[in-house]
Input
Amino acid sequence: MKYDSKIICRLKQARNIYIFGAHLVAEEVARCLMDEPFHCNIAEFAVSAKGDNPQTLLGRPVVDLKDLAKRDLDGSLMVIACMDRHLETIADLLRQSGFMNILPLTFESDEWSEVQDLYLRSYCAGKNRCYRPYQPFVSGGNPVTGSTHVYSVRSIYDKKLMEQYEPDWEIPLQVGASLSAERLCDIRDDIGDNISEKNPQYCELTGLYWIWKHDRAEYKGICHYRRHFCLSKEDIDALPSSDVDVILTTPVVNFPDVKSVYCHDHAETDWTAMEAAVKRLAPEYEEDLRFLGRSRYYYAYNMFLARREIFDNYCQWLFPILDYCEKNCAVHKDRYQERFIGFLAERLMSVYFMHHEKNYRIYIARKHFVR
Output
């Protein structure tokens, strides 16, 4: 299992919980743990150096790790809340400082996804919003098998991974293939009708476009070389005889809301262009976009699996909006922000499927992040 079934027990049994980190990820982790269904006692936030960190966060002191290490913290739990690229450095620092009871809730970690999943089940129930966790396939009878194709996109810029994880039911798909002579797999997004050359801005969406135009499977889906659905071969084979219309992954929690975090991390003018695009091209979704903007969660990574007609209808809706955004957003020279179309599409995917919550049977599956 990629999800630790003991995680909730560890949180409940801790006398006090300290969070390493004092910025956005730390705040999001703390807010979830302090709320339903956890009700954890967050004592303080710890940092390696006070520097420009705040004095307090959510009413708790932000303290220097060296000062915290001098105390008796027997029975306490140290939660790491940061971006994944800092995990190993921070974990080593904590161990050197005498902290051995450590729980990583980094942005991409499976453990953090589990916490978000449990938090959102409670949150959505309180808001009367649809949240339907996917139940793993249970053997019994003979499911009617059909064609289900889930593509795992990869590019020449992929990071080298420490873990080998590649389910045999996934189909490798090289994206941005027109921009390189290097060939990673047999299926590439530069074959036939394609937008492969837009990969620096569109990211995995050049693969999504290719699947839309070229694959006629009964169910179609897309994931990443290091982000995978926690599904089995039995789950995939059983889809054609199931009531499943769409499978999304556990949403990402944002505080205070999705729009504020987007504008903090990216260009606010891009969000404004997206609003204008929806108003012009899909006005019946305007209220859903406003709802998303003030919501606490969105469906991330442009990962989904759906019946062919739903998959195709979504793409037919999505790509004209993205084309409008591409033409009306500022040029981004920073390599990370250059991916602005991919970032906007994550929010648009949330808008589309939130709009259809009542007429699609949408299930939420966990994802596994490969390190």
